Amino acid sequence: MTPCYGDALKQDNPPFLFTLRPIITSDNERPVPILAFVNNASLSIVEVLAGRQMEVTKKFVNKPSECVDESIRGLVLANPGLECSKDCQRVVLRASKKSEEKVALIAGGGSGHEPFAAGFVGKGFLDAAVCGDVFASPPSDHVLSALNSVANKAGAIAFVINYTGDRLNFGLALERFQGTPNLDLVFIADDVALESKGETSVGRRGLAGAILLLKIAGSMAEKGKSFQAIVESTRKVNDHLGTMGLSLYPCSLPGKPPLFDLPKEKIELGLGIHGEPGCERIQMKGAKEIVTAVMEKLVKSSKLNLKAKDRIVVLLNNLGSVSQIEMNVLQMEVIEWIQSFGAEIVRFYSGTFMTSLDAHGISVTILKVVDDAWLEHLESECDVPAWKNSSGPFKSRHLPEAFESSKSSAYEAEVKGATVSKKVADRFKKSLEHVFKKIEEFHEELNRLDGKCGDGDCGDTLLSAAKSIKSVLDNSDLHLEHPQVLFLQLSTIFEKVVGGTSGAIYALMLSAAASAFKEDFGKNSLLWALKSGLEAIEKYGHARPGDRTMVDALNAAVEESQKPEHSWESVVEAAEKAAQETAKMEAKAGRASYTSSEAQSDPDAGAMAVAYWMRALLEAQK
Known about the structure:
GO biological process, one term: glycerol catabolic process
Radius of gyration: 26 Å
CATH class of the domain at 422-621: Mainly Alpha
Structural class: alpha+beta
Domain DhaL: 426-619
Helix content: 25-40%
CATH superfamily of the domain at 422-621: DhaL domain
Keywords: ATP-binding, Cobalt, Kinase, Nucleotide-binding, Transferase
Strand content: 5-15%
GO molecular function, one term: ATP binding
Largest sheet: 6 strands, mixed
Organism: Steinernema carpocapsae
Mean pLDDT: 84
Low-confidence stretches: 1-52, 389-396, 403-410
Strand order of the largest sheet: 6-7-9-8-10-11
């Protein structure tokens, strides 16, 4: 192969990011886009000429595992109006003194959507933001830390973009918080992309429309409006808020390859902010045609049903890596399309508000104005980094050299409930050890299954929990002789170590299961524990049998356990059969509910995980 190539690299270690011209190889005439990185790029000229495709995308990070904490540190260092909570470094607060008269507002979710939510902490917006791991909701104790920091007698409102993990973890925190009687949770659900799928158990996704809603809420709180007035107004805003997104290229997590494959000639229309598939893939076209496809779906949505002469607020949001010249072109196309349609734009905002890491895409939000007070609140004074950075001149500040770990390693628990013999305690230990061994074996398969409909981390999530449990077990810190305490400890490990949707689900299940051992430990205690765990997941996760989730496997096991002739073998077999049958179901809950039916051809990863660990528990008894 004889390569023909453009301008050569003339500097060994250029101090800037740049792009080489496409390289054309004479044997197949295929252009190979190559991105050169700063200082000491590992891409050799041989690899360049060979057109080698790097699997992991390049990021300006040190260690992927530390990027969230370092991102928060950078935000706080650069903005004197912000500080981190002394109790939890993943909670960003206003640096000013807490007001006892103003309703406190908090929001948050997984990281990777910056500047949401920490970039909107400050006067006229939020009082606190809770930052989870990348694309993973923060654990409930972090949310609880935020509530403890800002809640007051006027009340506190938590705003959650509508994803299962955020609902579960924020809901769990609100259930536990006792600091004020005025406490509520407002779900933001502005996505209009998936209306053709019909309503799912979990409802619409939350997208960049959240920023307009939070701006209105922040202004109302700053002006001293009541707790009830803010809750009612923001829910009304949500009812008139619609967002539609699209992407030309997928995003990629730090240290990972692109999250999904998107052919170069295709555009993903209606994707979610975690890289979830959208409503359809359309042919790559010019900006005018792309904007037309977005706007037609947006104005015709059942949520907006926009008409000519309607007054609207428009927010054009950069999902991560769209250049400013592209954003300017898109601004033109969006404004001209709306003018042609006949609606009246009364406010127009454009910028980077809620991203999907480095996704090369945008979202368009429309708020139908039915209350003029909303416009006053949108224009009211604020002082936050991501909306209007007017925090004053830079000031040299001192912060600790390193943040303390955001994940607690303490799993102490009060001894209570039933007591079992050493023989039974040893069986518990053997069971946990065997489950750990089996999770190591099947975690990659779970990742593969999860990658079809989610972010591909189901196996890694369980393995992370298993390793922590094994570590605590090896240190003899688990109360094996007290099953109620043991299950509560396991619940805490999932909550603190895993986080996200999976962590919250397993934490809820194990916490509820622990109640089966309050009085004694008998023949049917474990079966009652399984039933209690299932009921908790159904109550808080909104999943039901047939929704293509772990509930299908758990429910089948519980139903089998109610039969007089059941055995542990038959219970496990029922779970395994139900897990396999999820391959024939359409997801109606969890992140998979946002994916196409084509992506749901394999069994659900969560259901298979239940089948795997139940089989492992049974094997450990032989």
